[in-house]
Amino acid sequence: MKHYFDTNYTLPRLILLVALRVAIGWHLMYEGVEKLLQDDWTAYAFLMDSQGWFSGIFRSLAGNPTALAISDQLNMWGLTLIGFALITGIFTKYAKIAGMILIFFYFVAQPPLMMSEYIFPGEGSYLWVNKNLVELLALAVLFVYPTGHIIGIDRLLKKCNIIN
Fold first, then answer.
1. Contact predicate 93/148, CB 8 Å
2. How far apart, in whole angstroms, are the C-alpha atoms of residue 140 and residue 97?
3. d(C-alpha 71, C-alpha 51), whole Å
4. pTM of this prediction?
5. Residue pair 21/147 in contact by the 8 Å Cβ criterion
6. C-alpha span between 110 and 128 (Å, rounded)
7. C-beta separation of 46 from 97 below 8 A
8. Distance between CA 142 and CA 104 in Å, rounded?
9. Burial of 19 (0-12, 13-18, 19+ CB in 10 A)
10. Collapsed DSSP state (helix, strand, coil) of residue 10
11. Taking each helix axis from N to C terminus, what angle separates 65-88 and 92-109, rounded to the nearest 10 degrees?
């Protein structure tokens, strides 16, 4: 099969990798914009509902008004900007790393453990694997198989020697 651009990606692989990047980007950006548009959104309930090994850290974060305000802003803007970067293909290497870190925090704040009951239940019942873990692993795959330098603004930045 023919390889496209300066990679060994076949066209179907390239299309699927870009589609995955854009889909994750859309999900993250939508979540961020939705939170930004709510005047009173806060991560307080999510953090206070934390269970598992690191619940004390997340609950203390929620209990500190300054730390909570910073966390809220980082969460809303982080989701929005990471999602935008993935959709447009700009600074995708950094967006994938930031996305993996952010989603990792979601995962450890509310891990899908046996006997865990959350006040705000998710979309289903999970044991060890949930959508956060799946999305984190998908971003890891995209990090290993980058596409922004082929289809995205990173391609232009690479041509101008702004990124390598």
1. yes
2. 8
3. 18
4. 0.88
5. yes
6. 11
7. no
8. 16
9. exposed
10. strand
11. 140
Among candidates 121, 108, 103, 104, which has minimal Cα distance to 51?
108
Structure tokens at 69: 């305000």
Query: At residue 41, what is the residue type?
Result: W
Sequential pLDDT tens for the chain (164 residues): 565 555 678 889 999 999 999 999 999 999 999 999 999 999 999 999 888 789 899 999 999 999 999 999 999 999 999 999 999 999 999 999 999 999 999 999 888 875 556 556 556 666 788 899 999 999 999 999 999 988 899 889 888 888 77
* Inter-residue contact 19 to 34 (CB < 8 Å): no
The first and second tokens of residue 27, run together, are: 């999900």
Residue 124 has which token pair?
């289903």
Question: What DSSP line would sit under the chain, residue for residue?
Answer: --B-TTSS-BHHHHHHHHHHHHHHHHHHHHHHHHHHH-TT--SHHHHHT--STTHHHHHHHHH-HHHHHHHHHHHHHHHHHHHHHHHHTSSHHHHHHHHHHHHHHHHHHS---TT---SS--SS--BSB-HHHHHHHHHHHHHHS--TTTSSHHHHHHHTTS--
Q: How far is it, in rounded angstroms, from Cα 48 to Cα 61? A: 9
Largest CA distance in the chain: 57
